[in-house]
Amino acid sequence: KSSGGFGILGLFLNGWRSRVAADPQFPFKVLMEELVGVTACVLGDMASRSNFGLNELDFVFSTLVVGSILNFTLKYLLAPTLSSSSPSLPAIFASCPPSHMFEPGAYSLLNRCGTFVYKGAVFAAVGFAAGIVGTALSNGLISLRKKMDPNFETPNKAPPTLLNALTWALHMGINSNFRYQTLNGIEFLLAKGLPPFAFKSSVVVLRCLNNVLGGMSFVILARITGSQSAEEAKPVAVEV
After folding, report:
1. Are the CB atoms for 62 and 157 separated by under 8 Å?
2. Tell me, what's the pLDDT at 215?
3. pLDDT tens, residue by residue, 164-188
4. Helix residue ranges per DSSP H, 48-195
5. Is 238 exposed, middle or buried (0-12, 13-18, 19+ CB in 10 A)?
6. Residue, of 128 and 151, whose pLDDT is higher
7. Could you say which DSSP state residue 52 is in?
8. How far apart are alpha carbons 223 and 70 in whole angstroms?
């Protein structure tokens, strides 16, 4: 039944049903994205930091919070929907694939590139918003910890909220946009040629590798922009 009377929740439920109807594997993919994907993203993030991120756990926690929000958003927005309920893209992107650039259909190369540009803009906006919320939340929890334990000190400066949000927007709009759209195309081909068990196994492996790569690339970008910079150890004067 239609859930239009429940406002935003109703829109989300209708969108969820439409995605499940178009792709019965959609709930499994979302579950793997949140369980396996976020874990792999955090591991990739930690592997790119010195001492496996143990000296930068505040930054790792920020990545965990923001990544959990964004991974679900990426999977939801890129998933195909039933043609009867699939919204067309606005303005000049109206003739482009509505879900992802590798979506089946008689679309030209220019139209598929248009989907990449449009989705990139959407993901950048979502990344910016989630970056602000996630960074503010992680910084707030660290501040609360300091109030509860005055002796607690983080090894690094808290990431600047606005700069970190801009870094997430850049990462989402280009890096994540390309990786996830390509992943959707690969999964579509695998679903047609593999039995269910082999397909689900491949989804787990692909999403694990994809998120490890995403976590590592975000750390590199954050270092370049300066949104997450580990403080160097201060030299200790030794009296001889």
Report:
1. no
2. 84
3. 899 999 999 999 899 988 988 898 8
4. 57-78, 109-148, 161-170, 177-193
5. exposed
6. 128
7. G
8. 20
DSSP letters, 96-120, are S-SS-TT-SSS--HHHHHHHHHHHH
**Residue from 208, 178, 179, 202 nearest 190 by CA:** 202
CA distance 214 to 39: 12
pLDDT, residue 117, reads 92
Residues 51-95: pLDDT tens digits? 777 777 777 877 787 778 877 887 887 787 775 444 566 778 888
Rounded to 10 deg, the angle between the 161-170 and 109-148 helix axes is 150
| Paired tokens of 96 | 């482009």
72/65 Cα distance (integer angstroms): 12
Reported as half-sphere exposure (CB side, CA atoms, 13 A), residue 73 has a value of 21
Residue with tokens 């707030």: 140
